[in-house]
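> call design_seq(struct)
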């Protein structure tokens, strides 16, 4: 019984302590430290800045593929045994370098035969001329007839025709002999040889492929532009619309997949005559130097082309632009230090800044720091970050 009374006493003591603590909490919560109501929180601090005003160049970025400027498949134009190979597969060659030799004896003999025929025809012509003069003189002395004069006139004209034919045969024989030496048509890189020495090539008048050569410097880059961007460029361009693209100097910068930016400088040199109705695109072509032969045909490439220059463009830091269900917007502070939401339309990116195409004026104060504490319609404590307009800049590439 004594133990039970002791336990009841302990629980009563604990209960009284809990009631006392709760009472103190209620009383303390009704008063501030100073004994009066709680003080209102000050407006949050933000940093504001006006948009930068710069001259920028708009760009369009495309994707395309590289292609060789010249590609020739070398073939055997005469029949014969392939005697010798004069290059190593995949090496660089110069124009007129000897690549293949086809058996020549037959074509040398044909050339000698044609030259002999030419000499015979020239001798016949000389004889006909001499006889024609002789019989023409005898006719004046009534020592010959007109028939004999006419005969030698015919022989002379026939010999002249024979000489022309013989000269043509000599040229054909020289050409056939020259075809036995297959030379490089330009500076380029050789592919692998397709026929080994000892094989007969050009049999039955067929042109046997021997190898392929490609010119790698400069290099073409083919890409397409969609109809919307094309119309915008045509609207902004100052040149005559019908002026060929080859008559203009339109720069084009090229970058490969593993390259930073667009390190290769080239230009546009060709545009298709019409827009493809199935895709709504126009094919364009750029040309870029490739002296180190680092560009190979068929590579994926990025192309950046300038479209127009805009003066007095407005730029704000990229972090100052947000996006919600209504679209892009920035937060600005009015002359009463009240935050306003301003819907904007952004353009190209320049370093860490964005071009504002619509929705902002040059004298607006945009919140650039402390945006999380700024709520539209509420007052803030703004600190201005005055900055001067920077030098003209180039816009980063806009995706196509």
């Amino acid at each position: 019984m004594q133990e039970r009374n002791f336990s009841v006493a302990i629980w009563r003591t604990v209960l009284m302590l809990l009631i006392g603590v709760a009472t103190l909490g209620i009383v303390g919560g009704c008063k501030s430290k100073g004994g009066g109501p709680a003080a209102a929180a000050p407006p949050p601090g933000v940093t504001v800045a006006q948009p930068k005003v710069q001259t920028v160049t708009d760009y369009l970025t495309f994707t395309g593929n590289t292609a060789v400027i010249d590609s020739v498949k070398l073939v055997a134009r005469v029949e014969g045994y392939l005697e010798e190979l004069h290059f190593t597969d995949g090496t660089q060659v110069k124009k007129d370098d000897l690549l293949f030799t086809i058996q020549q004896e037959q074509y040398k003999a044909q050339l000698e035969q044609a030259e002999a025929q030419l000499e015979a025809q020239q001798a016949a012509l000389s004889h006909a001329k001499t006889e024609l003069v002789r019989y023409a003189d005898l006719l004046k002395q009534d020592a010959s007839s007109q028939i004999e004069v006419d005969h030698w006139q015919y022989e002379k004209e026939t010999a002249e025709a024979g000489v022309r034919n013989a000269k043509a045969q000599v040229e054909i024989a020289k050409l056939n002999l020259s075809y036995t030496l297959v030379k490089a048509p330009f500076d380029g890189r050789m592919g692998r040889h397709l026929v080994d020495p000892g094989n007969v090539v050009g049999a039955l008048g067929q042109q046997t492929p021997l190898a392929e050569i490609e010119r790698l410097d400069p290099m073409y880059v083919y890409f397409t532009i969609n109809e919307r961007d094309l119309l915008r460029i045509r609207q902004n361009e100052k040149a005559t619309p019908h002026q060929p693209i080859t008559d203009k100097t339109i720069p084009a910068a090229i970058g490969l997949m593993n390259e930073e930016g667009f390190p290769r400088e080239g230009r546009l040199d060709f545009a298709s005559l019409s827009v493809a109705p199935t895709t709504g695109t126009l094919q364009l072509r750029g040309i870029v130097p490739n002296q180190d032969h680092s560009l190979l045909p068929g590579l994926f490439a990025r192309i950046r082309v300038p479209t127009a220059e805009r003066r007095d463009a407005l730029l704000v830091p990229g972090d100052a632009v947000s996006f919600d269900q209504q679209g892009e917007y920035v937060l600005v502070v009015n002359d009463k230090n009240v935050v306003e939401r301003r819907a904007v339309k952004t353009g190209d990116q320049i370093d860490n800044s964005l071009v504002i195409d619509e929705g902002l004026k040059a004298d607006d104060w945009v919140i650039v720091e402390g945006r999380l504490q700024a709520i539209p319609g509420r007052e803030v404590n703004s600190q201005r970050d005055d900055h001067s307009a920077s030098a003209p800049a180039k816009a980063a590439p806009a995706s196509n």
